[in-house]
Fold this protein.
Amino acid sequence: MNQPLRHAQFGVINSYLVPEEDGFTLIDAGVPGLERHVLAVVRRTGRALRRVALTHIHPDHIGSVDALKQAFPDLEVLVGENDAEGLARNGVRATPARLLRGGDSVGSLSVLDTPGHSPGHLAFFDERDVTLYAGDTFVNIPSLRVASVVNALFPLPSIGTEDLARTVNSARLLLDVPARFLALGHGRVLRDPLPAMRRAVELAEKNIPPHPLLLRLAATISRRSGIPAELADVGRWPKK
Ligand SMILES: [Zn+2]
């Protein structure tokens, strides 16, 4: 297979074009404007965009869905069944072609249920190049951590994490996937990621409450970004 292509909007919001026999699957749809990049790749490679598979339905992962659907009317929009309602609530007009759950396939990708960051959060595993696309269960900015662990340099995925304890559980389940590459919603792709993933899960399970300054920062960001306060409640910390 050809290499998947990673595109990082503003350097921090990833989406991936995964090549298939019939064209590309896009994993996550970034923020508005991503469609221009996708169209350029489609034009350059002569390969159609067939489907967009969403790890979850937060605004930084769905921003170009409707523009892409307009550009490619046959595009299949695919989302976790427990995120379908959230997709519409977050303003996407396109109707999903299929609601996904663990065990399903999307082209060559296997679907894994990883609820927590959102209720219907999914990961995708590509056996061909042994890449695990894990969405926002882990974050790799500035280094690898479970999204339940707040980092002051890039706190948004943690603030957006809806259920911290379930996120940690899902992160632990992903340790059983024999991934050679870990491709996330935020941060660089990691090669041979399992030792770093294991360390990140162990740290997340230690149940260390975040520093009060971080909580204040998170609350400020929540106010300014308009993320609902209940999602910003980083005080709900996972139990051991
Ligand atoms: Zn995200």
